[in-house]
Amino acid sequence: MQTYKEQFIEFLLQTSALRVGDDYKLKSGRVSPWFVNIGDFNDGAASTELGDHYAEALLRSKIPFDILYGIPEKGTALAVATAMELHKKGTTVPWFFTRKVPKDYGEATNLTPEERIKALVVGRAPQKGQAIAQLDDVFTAGDAKYEASYLLQSLGDFNVPLLAIAVDRQEVGIDGKSAIEEYSKTTGTKVVSIVNATDVYTFLQEHQRDPAIITRMEHYLRVYGTSAARKAMPTLEQRIIQRDRSIIPACDVPTIEQFEKLVQETASIEGIGGYKVGFELGLTYGLPRVVETARKHTDKPIIYDHQKAGTDIPDTGKNFADVCKRAGIDTVIFFPQAGPETERAWIYSALDKGLNVIVGGRMTHPAYAQSEGGFITNEGALEMYRIAARAGVNHFVVPGNKQDVIKLVKETVEAEGVKPVFYAPGFVAQGGKIEDATQVAGDYWHAIVGRGITQAADMRKAALEHTSKL
Q: What pTM was computed for the model?
């Protein structure tokens, strides 16, 4: 890492402008384990050093500019501090910022450009044709930057070739695209940062910060980071089932006694990989008791399938992960039909709590996808798999009775660079055959079998029969 980056990150930490380790709510609504608040620079010494770093970033860009614009609110003080430090380095430019106004620009809407500048600008008014360098603290979703760009356009005919920020959080938007790349493409403005999220992560690693903090940041950047940020993170290591192939009983039984009997009779079978518990047992007896009952007889993974978790708002993912972790659940299954931000938030919350994650998008029954007469678009279902794969998740639920869907999902996640492990329900009562799924699922997959085991006269015998087909 370049020396100036190390110095700047150390400066941010010393002044507590960079905070790591807790949960911080961002303007975007995301909950992040790290946060930067340039507003904490409120004395002469800190402002001078900050202005120097911004001045160097502008000069390193090699992009000519005539005037500085501080995006309200954080950028207003930055413009003054940076102009002073640029002057010390031999570059004297004026600065300005704008008064905070509604999006329709209030009373200034019907004014001429000259009158609008007079009404809104504090500092040196920009002149026609000048190149404006904008200044702000961080870049997450970019909402404030777009507003500033539209406001500058309303003030007159200027060039806006450059935006300097302290920290590029390297996050994607709701659409999964790099927020900064989309901003630059839309506005024609190049964004330069003093450091980015990967730099902060590397600094924390190299300076032997708390490993738990580093792990949390890894999870966050895997889920919300740009392609460049994700590539800088180590591979997510989650092996749920120790065998390459197994049978996982779906424990949808009405009583805790029946559940215990099922586990007791099948736990010693080598081909049984784990147990999938649904809401029926969980809501009736409580997840802690269900896990405690299973642990009397096995240490194999307990997978909780809330049928279907991940369909709520993003904020509730943290609560769900807390509940599952406290109960002793090993792995959770999500079908994140509520949208991309919910999916990302629930995956991040689960990983943050040390839970393994399995994500599904297509189901076994008829009339689920639109091509089958259902509500969910085929492409929307595939996007659930893609988002999970980009976050490093490599465990997926696929319908065992739909070989064409298994093949399509396999191709989709492999295109994202992930080697998938599949979990497939849909056998016996729903018509699927384990032998058929084996032909398309690949080397790593696990058959989820419910009634074919739980409703058998001899559950152990049924489990042995199903494991023999792997």
A: 0.91
